[in-house]
Amino acid sequence: MNAKTEMMDRQPEINTQRDVYQVDALSANNNAPAMADRRPAAKKLPKKKRKCMDYVRKTIPSIDWLFLNYRWSEDFAEDTMAGIAVAVLNIPQGMAYSILGNVEPTVGLYMAVFPVLVYSLLGTSRHISLGVLSVLCLMTGKVVTMYATDGTGYTAIQVATAVTMVAGLVQLLMYVFRLGLLCTILSETLVSGFTASVAVIVLTSQLKELLGVDVARRVGMMQVPHTFYDFADRFHTINWMTTAVSVTTIAVLLLYNKYLKERINSKLCMPLPIELIVTIVATVLFQVTTIAQDYDMVQMGEIKSGLPAFEVPPVKLFSAVFMDACVIALVGYSITMSLALLVAEKLKYPLDTNQELLAQGLGNVVGSFFSCLPSGASPSRSASQQTVGGKTQMASIVSAGIIVVVLLWIGVVFEPLPRCVLSSIIVVALKGLLLQVLDFPEIWRKSKTDGAVWIFTYSTVIVLDIDTGLLVGVVVSLLFVFVKGVLNEVHVLGRLPDTDLYVRLDLYGDAVEVPDVKIVRYAGSLNVINRYMFKRKLIEVTRAGYNDASMTMTVTVVDGKHATGGRRTQCVVLDMAALQYADASGVKMLSESIESLVSDGFDVYLAAVPDSSLEYVRCNNDVKSVRFFPTVHDAVVFRQCSSKKIQNLTYDSQSTKTPNGL
User: Fold this and answer.
1) Does the predicted model carry a pTM greater than 0.70?
2) What is the C-alpha to C-alpha distance for residues 389 and 513, in angstroms, rounded to an integer?
3) How far is CA 470 from CA 283, 395, 460, in A?
């Protein structure tokens, strides 16, 4: 037992004995052609032609999962429950977020039908719930405010549908050119800062409804500071009954979410729709009382029943809203894809980023004919669809069917509902986004770059505008990527005693330099921009610690058989394992730097050059005396063996000549 325990506690060891290799010898010993003899790879065999039906099934994924392979007996019951859960969330959220878009409350319910049905047939995510999204509704509402004025002759819904159509067409164009990966421009940090700042703008825009203050809605640059100034100036117009209802609604929702939600939901087959319950209770209360009329509270008013009529968006508005629609298309796709990828990674199924562009783009195009705003995936509804047990997009189809019933017969019952109740639901739904600001210290601690991107995006969106802030965030993010690609690092390495591991001397106190060998690690790209920085840093670290005498040593050249000269030279081993990319100017500067070191009395070895750059470096390197090694340890051992051989030859030569001199 003790022996077994001792064996388990023993530190694992690696014992390897092999020859020292140079790159060409390694290739020859493993039946690989030398770099100079390598030929371009043969052309790939033509792919097998795909049948027309294969393209159809790829373009319309529902042919497989719905019409051919859907498990009605196993999945339909769970999808139905998930669809019901999503529908009861869609009713209050749809009406509430329509306020952000400056359109009628039924528009949010339309968005829970038409884009959702299109996505369920064409999308590749099984669990995201498309429909109203606060960020997109707010951005669309800004455009509506700009163009839906008395002077233009366009109604709010006409401007909104024009934005939806153009956004959908942009997404379809991105699909045609296979730009699904374009969403990676918006990093997670940037999206976090952007959504957190948009939540502040949404909260600011809802103060009018929450407090009943008589102020005009601000849009454009500096809207948040101007809005707070307007509220301070018009605070005397506050409606105290509206404020009381808002505070009560927010308190009820927050207290339920914090203390009762988990307890109650754990005992139910689906989450309790607290938002819908609050909406129904408020509707009944103000239906049977005259509180709203007595205190001049703003109510929902007339709600149209039935489905919207087919109407083509005004084409003349397309050019005016084009830039805003492009931003909305990119933001909507990025947020939706981030959520879809998160769920897909958790549940282990694949996604097609380009197919998602087709599904969302066509969903927006179809929705624009039926009075819809640009749609996106909601985190709360998607989480509900997944946690309740939804298996496929059949849950979205069920949800859309329930919303159709609400539009046809039930929607009109919400006419007495005060708008402040819906604004309160919006504010509570934004709690998580508003609290993302508390994540900033942790983001800054982990990465100063990510922290800078987050704070730049957050502050510029709030202080300036949504579009301007997003543009600043993207520019700053790409600028950091560019700068990191240009910057390089040069470090001196040492060897950990009794190992073949070479680590940075400034990080590992036990590491020691190999005698007469300066090991230098280069990390980064080597290009036309940073080439002079590379040369300066290389010369600095290689010459550091050497006195003038060592720098004036004569060069020893080893031809494999004999040694010429009698003095020992210094050696520089360049560890190029972290070389990312090298262009012609960078390789030329590498050659000049090596030539400078050779002329100063150094032997130069290149170790661990990546395969992607090795042939290019060798073909464009004018210094012929450079040796290439697969690892740093090969280069060091080769150098040590060569030095011993030279010393032995020199000693034997001196011993032979000494008697003749006597």
Assistant:
1) yes
2) 60
3) 38, 33, 8
